[in-house]
């Protein structure tokens, strides 16, 4: 199985297990994270439209105050409430 190093705590160099993939989006809670870069919101809006039209998942949206700073605690804790997270990164 793939392993990764925590991006949340640079001091933590112990590899962590990846979260399991969802078998289906049906009934899932999907987190949408906008890191506050140009056009990220447009991407997430369109993706939310598609998911809502299909009625498959509940969407939870959070936005970082700025992409240049670390994420606030509520954004990091998003993973506890969601089965998956989509992050809008690029311009």
Can you tag this structure with a few keywords?
3 helices; single chain; alpha/beta; 5 strands; three-stranded parallel beta sheet; globular; two-stranded antiparallel ribbon; 91 residues; 25% strand
The gist of it:
The protein has 91 residues and is α/β, with parallel strands linked by helices.
Describe what this molecule looks like in 3D.
- The chain is globular, with a radius of gyration of 14 Å.
- The protein is α/β, with parallel strands linked by helices and 91 residues long.
- The chain has one domain (24-88).
- The chain contains 3 helices and 5 strands; from the N terminus they run E-E-E-H-E-H-H-E.
- A 3-stranded parallel β-sheet has the order 4-3-5.
- 9% of the residues are buried.
- The mean pLDDT is 83.
- It has helices at residues 40-54, 73-76, 78-81; strands spanning 3-4, 16-17, 28-34, 57-63, 84-88.
């Amino acid at each position: 199985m793939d392993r990764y190093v925590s991006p949340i705590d640079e001091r933590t160099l112990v590899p962590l297990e990846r979260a399991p993939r969802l078998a289906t989006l049906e009934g899932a809670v999907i987190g949408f994270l906008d890191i506050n870069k140009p056009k990220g919101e447009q991407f997430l809006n369109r993706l939310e439209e598609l998911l809502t039209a299909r009625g498959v998942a509940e969407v939870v949206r959070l936005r970082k105050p700025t992409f240049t700073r670390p994420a606030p605690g509520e954004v990091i804790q998003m993973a506890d409430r969601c089965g998956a997270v989509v992050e809008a990164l690029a311009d």
